Amino acid sequence: MSSAERDELVCTNVVGHLIGSSLEAGGSRTTPVYNPATGRISREVQVADKATVERAVSVAAEAYPAWRQMPPVKRARIMFRFKELLEQNEERIVSLITDEHGKVLDDARGELRRGIENVEYACAAPELLKGEHSRNAGPGIDSWSEMQPLGVVAGITPFNFPAMVPLWMYPIALVCGNTFVLKPSERDPSSTLLVAELLYEAGLPEGVLSVVNGDKETVDALLADRRVAAVSFVGSTPVAEHVYNSAGGKRVQALGGAKNHAIVMPDADIDNAVSALMGAAYGSCGERCMAISVVVAVGDIADEVVAKLAAQVRELKVGPGTDDGNDMGPLITAAHRDKVSAYVDRGVEEGAELVVDGRGITVPGHEDGFFLAGNLFDNVKPGMDIYKDEIFGPVLSVVRVDSLDDAMQLADDHEFGNGTCVFTRDGETARYFSDHIKVGMVGINVPLPVPVACHSFGGWKRSLFGDLAIYGPDAVRFYTQRKTMSQRWPSSGDRERARFSFPSSD
Fold first, then answer.
1. Identified catalytic residue from 11, 289, 421, 454
2. For residue 392, is it left (φ>0), alpha (ψ between -120 and 50) or beta?
3. Cα separation of 445 and 51, whole Å?
4. Residue 505: pLDDT band with limits 50, 70, 90
5. Region 229-235: what's the mean pLDDT?
6. For the chain, which domains are there?
7. Which of 92, 128, 158, 481 has a CA between 20 and 30 Å from the CA of residue 383?
């Protein structure tokens, strides 16, 4: 792209694409990016068409042979420098996150720091990729295995974590020797682009990473390109299932939706449990796949739990994310705010008790922002839409049951199986729960059991399509393919007869 074209992108506040290390235009359509706190369009983002995607994949394919041959320790050194640059540019990154997503700045900092943990894990590439070796596996035969890269791989990431979720994917994919094409959310692309540019500043060779912005047209072009060997996806279950079924034989990990249950036992520390539930349910306005959206109160503690939750929900401070005094910012778009509000309407219609109503909030000075305050329902039943559906907003439902088995049955029967937790002081209860619950990520007095970077993140049932979870050890397995070699060097002069039996170590 010429300097004049690049200047036009900047001057008109249009977000383009990062093809290799260069910001480029591509595609005839744009879509607006809003500041959710003001409700105003802050910039436009270009939608990559098929030709733009194909160019990004071509650049990645050209860079792959040399990158594949780079020693893992050298790839790791780039990641070490990348980590430093991310930390040095933290405030720039989190400011962009809050500007386009709306979450409060402290939440944005937490997002970035959790992403950096995955970069730290990727720095261990020389250890992660060592392979295995067996001398004299058979008579005079040595055998070893290697973890070899796949080639060009792609990632498709959601709006709710524009910095963290891409960092779940491409740092480990790259240190494994792959090249990467990222399609982030078109709702908040700027922080994602900045982070990618910092990786090039850290010394990433030209073409190893590209970022193409866009919508379904862009996703479908990536899925259709036969040069893309694998696709990682994080988003809603309908789209995760579409990606999984439309990948044309590619290796796929597609993380979908959730309806995370928090079970509060009669012996729990109720005050601490309620405080933990507040952050887990209403942090980031509930726009998290690990947000607690159902509290299952066991036994006679339900009234106390609901009363203490209601008192704190009413005290939530809602406003622009740039104000450090606020607990919640706006939702991502007006359409999503209205969708969440419609779920609250439906819950009332279905007969649930709306204990705290967060609809219709107006934030002074930000009257056009996409705000919704915290909502709390009691006496929710499993057949209600507010119980069944992933709402992805500040709506918490309380279900009352008589026993732990009843509570676990609710979580087990739900179509999603992403995360869950139990609040208890009893070790036997905790052990039984963690061993038998049919959910992929489990917390014991931990409401958001998001695994650290050296473990892997993934749900069960319709929360994950594919056999491998994301980041951590499963990511190494996902972004590599095992090759096992066996070699034998017979002594010179030996003459061996043909053997027709299946070879063994005898």
1. 289
2. left
3. 50
4. low
5. 97
6. 3-256+463-484 (3.40.605.10), 260-444 (3.40.309.10)
7. 158
